[in-house]
Amino acid sequence: MRSLLNKLLGWIAGPPPRLRCDRAVWTSGVAELARRTRGCSQESGAYLLGTRLSDGSSRILEFVYYDDVDPRALETGEVTIRQTALPRLWALCRKRGYGVVADVHVHPGSCRQSYSDHADPVMPRAGHIAMILPNFAANAPEPGRIGIYEFCGEGRWLDHSAKGSGFVRLDGRA
Ligand SMILES: [Zn+2]
Question: Ligand 1 is a single-atom ion; what residues have CB below 5 A from it?
Fold first, then answer.
């Protein structure tokens, strides 16, 4: 009976989103990414750390900014993480008990993937989600106005951008 009820509720609510994030965490993270573009003069980005939920979605709990992991990550204007900086990220994940559930970075213009975004995934692992915020993350962009791409392995990606909050849901009041 209970499983039938859950099934019915599932049909009404639709499939769970792939990612969830408290609106407060998202809003402050995106504002910080905008700040780190230093007045729209460079890209910025972050690993999104969190945990896997029982319904198969993941919850974003923390933004870890690329330039905190690697002080030279933003030097060229386009985000570049040196492999030598990654042990710092893994140590933080262990300390928190989190995993990397997605990544996000800022573009000067559109939220479409650049050649290097497409060719060099931040986490080259099938199922990894990469988000792109347009216009240097100005005006607090939310799912529906951002790029959402899933790496499928072997150079292939799925574009989930049009699904917006059906794919990346922000919980809490707007
Ligand atoms: Zn990019």
Answer: 114, 117
